[in-house]
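Example 5.3 — ARSD Arylsulfatase
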Amino acid sequence: FHFRNKHRPFLLFVSLLHVHTPLITTEKFQGRSRHGLYGDNVEEMDWMVGKLLDVIDKEDLKNTTFIYFASDHGGFLEAHRGNSQLGGWNGIYKGGKGMGGWEGGIRVPGIVRWPGVLPAGTVIDEPTSLMDIYPTVVQLAGGAVPQDRVMDGHTLLPLLQGTEQHSRHEFLFHYCGVFLHAVRWHQKNSGTVWKAHYATPVFQPEASGACFRRGICPCFGDGVTHHDPPLLFNLSQDPSEANPLSADTEPV
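Solution (predicted structure tokens):
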């Protein structure tokens, strides 16, 4: 590993194939985990990220390098071999990869490291977006985002540095392909987050929380249910989206 630009600003983007099916794992990591091939894949990814961090530390760039680790979607529930599930786990959240609106497909951890600037061990529980990477990187580089159009992303630095307590996203729109499936609204000056679902995938089997018969949930057609009025949830009180609100019980 060799840093040509260690004395100048650099942007390194690493898009890992790991923990994506098919679970390609090198011989060295096969059988390393108690959690089968998926676990081996996680172990190998962890090792690869570790190698990158080691080089940054060795080149004495640790305190001047902003590192952001995240995923583009939640765990893939339909991935399985025989009876063993291979695609990750989304905790209390409903749904997973390829489902435009359910929290299990959207919520992913974001891990940030910048020892010279950001204190370690800080936990921020605010929704941000991968669209925020662009304005964040532009700000870090001392640039300005284009002013001739609306930017969907917001810089993450005020949130990370604690100068702002809340995400700048009042609304987040969640698409499945080109189809709008859900919208989240963080009501200003209140801790309440509402989520409206306009379309949701039809789970097969119904109680499984995934589309096992199709292999992955579709975005449109007979594989989705359209909701009019939309399904509405109070995410602040019901993060697992188990209890849709009704106009009778929640007229407001």
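Remark. The radius of gyration is 20 Å.
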